[in-house]
Amino acid sequence: MSGVRLLVGTRKGGFVLSSDGKRKKWKVSGPHFAGWEIYHLKGSPADPDRIYGSQSSGWFGQVTQRSNDGGETWEAVGNEFPYDGVPGTHQWYDGTAHPWEFKRVWHLEPSLDDPDTVYAGIEDAALFRSKDGGRSWQEVSGLRKHGSGPHWSPGAGGMCLHTIIQDAANPKRMFVAISAAGAFRTDDGGATWQPINRGLRSQHIPDPAAEVGHCVHRIAQHRARPNTLFMQKHWDVMRSDDGGDNWREVSGNLPTDFGFPIDVHAHEPETIYVVPIKSDSEHFPPEGKLRVYRSRSGGDEWEPLTRGLPQTDCYVNVLRDAMTVDTLDPCGIYFGTTGGQVYGSADGGDSWTAIVHDLPAVLSVEVQTLA
Amino acid sequence: MIRVVLPFHLRNLARVGDEVEIEVSGPPTLQAVLDALEAEYPVLRGTIRGHNGGRRRPFLRFFACEQDLSHEPTDTPLPEPVVRGVEPFLIVGATAGG
Q: ipTM of the predicted structure?
């Protein structure tokens, strides 16, 4: 019997929500690591029992967790993320030079084919890799050292590397995104990187079309179309069909093109989802109506999905790592809010139900589709 | 044996109770007790101070015998009642709230 397992990171712990393939009844487990910020939990595609977690605290720093039994039990693994060499400086908010300092792990991306290999996107922005199940971490330093690193500057949430996409068709190719530096690609397994931000325009930076400096919030890719990327930028929803070499705006008729998450339907590579947010100053849905917008044409034409979602007085946000899709048919879509709700749709977004109402603020939601 | 009291979240992380007892080899200094604590409970590495004996994390303080040891040099000997196990060495997290 197929099933799904949602891995939910919140401000005050991690939760595991489980259901069978019908996705009607849910079992809630948690809080795991109660009282800690759980930035991200993600399972290995190669072994669903292997889950990695980023546990963080302003008092106690970073802890990295690992489960070998699908989230039943956990063990702390390596929490040392040493930059390669002398890290130097990047730009601070005021344009002055600021030393590179490790703060936390924002995102963990397990390898597609090896449960012991996992990537970590950290703040201050860098990419790390572990090949021993998270016990030790080494920087993939070609990214930070490719040349533009000293010019990167943080977004309001910190200078985080938040998106890591492994290309299933080409193991040498990987995409990452950094707030507020932009998107980058490697074609040689991480040795060298190039910015891929041509076509992005950001009015809040001195050169709106700069090579780096764009506040990319999230990138999504469908595995069957590895050269097509969808991006939710600070403002603007963007699309590339050449592996990020060029981008074009596909915001179309969205009520606002500010937002954080973006995701792609598991079986329809041109069906994408965003959650429009009013503005960068008002991080809540326009008109107090929580609406997921779906495009079945890869952007430009969007439809609001509202059935089951609050349409009055709703002022939550949906953060960049807090939306995910399962691979069942029909495709399931899930997202968590800063108000502590996790909503799920078992019909591609046509209708929604609140799986849980009252968790702490949700930082991340990932789903595992279980055989 | 030196008695060490950890903050709530570090007790949970290390899976220990209200106090732990630490054997310190050599002169019982601030650094020696932290080194011994981390050797006994490796999961605490990086959570009280930086890795490899680094600086105290800013939201943590060290107290013993009603003295604030947070800003003392790391080679400062611990108070004699702590060394004898009469008084605990306290690692305290900043109070959060408001």
A: 0.93
